[in-house]
Request: fold
Amino acid sequence: MAKIHPNRTASGTGDPMAIQPFTIRRIRKETHDTFSLELEVSGNNGNFVFTPGQFNMLYVFGVGEVPISISGDPAKKEILVHTTRVVGAVTKAMRSLKVGDSIGVRGPFGKGWPVKAATGNDVVIITGGIGLAPLRPMIYHLLTHREEYGRIVLLYGARTPDEILYGKHLEKWRSRFDLEIHLTVDRATGSWRGNVGVVTSLIRRAPFDPSHCISMVCGPEIMMRFTIVELQRRGVDESKIFLSMERNMKCGIGLCGHCQLGPTFVCKDGPVFCYNELKDQFIKREM
Amino acid sequence: MESLERILTEHPFLENFDPKQIKLLVGCASNVVFKAGEFLFRTGEDADSFYFIRHGKVVIETYLPQKGPIVIKSREAGEVLGWSWLIPPYQWRFDGRAVELTRAIALDGKCLREKCEQDHDLGFDIMKRFAMMIAQRLEATRLQLFDIYGKDTSK
Reply:
């Protein structure tokens, strides 16, 4: 059983099984069923370093622990942000927490996005729904180190205009000339004048060089499956396609086996995988 | 000013199309402009054209009494709009409405159908390209129907 650990010695929470209490600094409602928790990084928690794409185990005291992707800016050391959707007892309890309350954190865990491999290439980010959350740290990173990358294209699909995550950020990023953003919704409502249709239909016309690009994909698995098909139609090699997988992560260090996917553990070997590492399992119905 | 032949030759939908057949297409092509809010076609009308959108955006929608217009898809620059001209009874199944100023090349479907009947190589090539487009759109529509961002399947 995990223990509460008041001190941490390395970046992250040190002992992977030790839960570190963090104070909630801000709670932001993102959409009707998603919210972000901003945690204070100070004192004993003062050196939390993570790679875009990694996740933490968040523990609501007395309720339970869930894996949540880190969704904040890796360069902002003073806050640690997680965005989640209310889907079960733990996230429901998490939503009822208040500013000033404590929440337990273990992490960061797993392998993140291929930050180095993307250097010098176009970067195509394709995501849907809450899948934008684990990609936001990568977008922050790309923008902080903008000169190291070629074209940066974000293709994002949501169910309806009201369910677009990080609307204000997207609006701000859209005003930049060095980042191309294409949004689409499955169902247009109200005064929406943007694209209507699935996110995969944006890939065909997206401005990137298929022979010099890295694509980063996160969303429901069925969306990722069709995204891979479209990327391959554009001529993107499977070694250039990276996916963030979600399974039932528990221990975070590949011991418990809850998140086993074929020969790999999503918590330790992922959650970000290169498609060619995963393709044998990816299309198997039972997986 | 760009010639219709050059524009059609460079359009991705007509990639590697026989240059002689491009000339046949040009014979059925014309430049068209639609203001925001203007309908390109309406449900039930004769479908005697299709469009290579060059600029702007068009939504494909249907009208439901009590609910009003429901947008199903949008099409924008670089895309082809319309296949009802190819399939009997050659009538539009949905409405097509420009949501911003839209410039397009309209191909006269009736004219092209006749040319396809006369030249089966042209007809087969056109049919293959539209079959691919229809298959991709069917795939996209199925994905849209899954409601993939719902709670039970989303990340």
Observations:
- The first helix of chain B runs from residue 4 to 10.
- DSSP finds four helices and eight strands in chain B.
- The two ends of chain B are 49 Å apart (CA to CA).
